Amino acid sequence: MKVLWLLPQSVYSAPGFSAAPQKALLGSHLASMRMRTSMAVAACHIAGNVCRFVCPDLDGTMDVIDQDHVDICVLSKFFYDSDPSLWLQACKQLKANGARLLVDISDFPWASLTSESSEAYRIKRDKLVHFYDTLLPFVDAWTVGSEKLKFLISEFSDRSCTVIGDAIFASPAAPRFKPDQVLELLWFGHPSNLPDLQQYIPSLVSFSAHKPCCLNIVTSVDQGFMENISRLNRQLPDTLRLRCEPWSVERTYRSLRACDLVLLPGDPNNPRKAGVSANRIAETLQAGRLPIANTLESYLPFSDSAYLGPDLSAGIAWALAHPDDVLAKIAQVQALVSSRYGQAVVAKQWHDTLIQVASAPS
To answer: Could you write out the DSSP letters of every residue in 263-275?
Structure first.
């Protein structure tokens, strides 16, 4: 089987990608590349399949591919700053030459606008909707990261849709919750999720009056963001300190080991959060730490092991009052995380899905 992957330029042109694509995908700052695409590519390599990679935005990349012998094309990620006409042209050409088209969705592109949506987001959303609306007739199958996202996709397409969770790479660590005088909190994730954290800070300020806290923020940031954190620290009471570290896979693992609790705020009423992956919940539990999160629908499978609720500060207070229950919550789910989201499990799901889509009758 010959598989062709359509990748955004930021991934395709990343340092080291041309020499070692699999290694570059595993180190990508994009969770969809690291936890999804890398597993699919690995599964194909193990099975002896041929993998090729192109970026439709770059001149000439499609010309070097023998399109007549591509069995399946996988569209892993389309960014709004890509040229939709080039991507659509690539998909149409491949379909015309007999390839099947599998589209992996990690963010719901048809999320409705709200009164709080910025103009920049409106422009981005309109571009994404136009791209996916035009792509719909050419799609043979979808893959998504949650049951909620599968349901949402079904309202726009009657093509088959397979739920494949994001891979969790770490082995389970022993559950730990032994806070010192200062409670060590962690938030990690993509910068697009920072507004949810910023909205929670005033509540954390109030909570820190009862228990001093240090919040470590691990994300992809620039110097301006670091300066904002320093400025904010000068304005905050001494009971709350903020620390920021640039994201990397290793730094995230290290920060998980060093923290007491992980905070994952999110707005359940935000349509952009519909179907969001629960990978940060799973990663946190696998690291032996308790995630405290707002009740997003895709987090509900972890309702017995994470603390889910409308008030994160209430979750922190509960954890401090019930340390033994914290450890029990974490321990009871780690085997489940490994059995559902372990690398071998996810890789097999990808390979089975690719074979099924490639071999399905026209």
So the answer is: EE---TT-GGGTT
The rounded distance, in Å, linking the Cα atoms of 250 and 237 is 31
Place of tokens 């938030």: 187
First-to-final CA distance of the chain = 17
| Domain boundaries, position 151 | 2-167+342-359
Q: Are residues 116 and 215 in the same domain?
A: no
**pTM exceeding the 0.85 threshold for the entire prediction:** yes
pLDDT tens profile 152-183: 999 999 999 999 999 999 999 999 999 999 99
Question: Residue 284 belongs to a domain with what CATH number?
Answer: 3.40.50.2000
- Regarding whether 237 and 135 lie in a shared domain, the answer is no
Helix%, strand%, coil% for the chain, nearest 5: 50, 15, 35
Model confidence pLDDT, tens digit, residues 231-272? 999 999 999 999 999 999 999 999 999 999 999 999 988 877
Task: Write down the residue that tokens 């308790």 correspond to.
Answer: 290
Which whole-number Å values give the CA distances from 282 to 45, 121, 249, 306, 350, in the listed order? 26, 28, 15, 9, 19
Structure tokens of 358? 């490639």
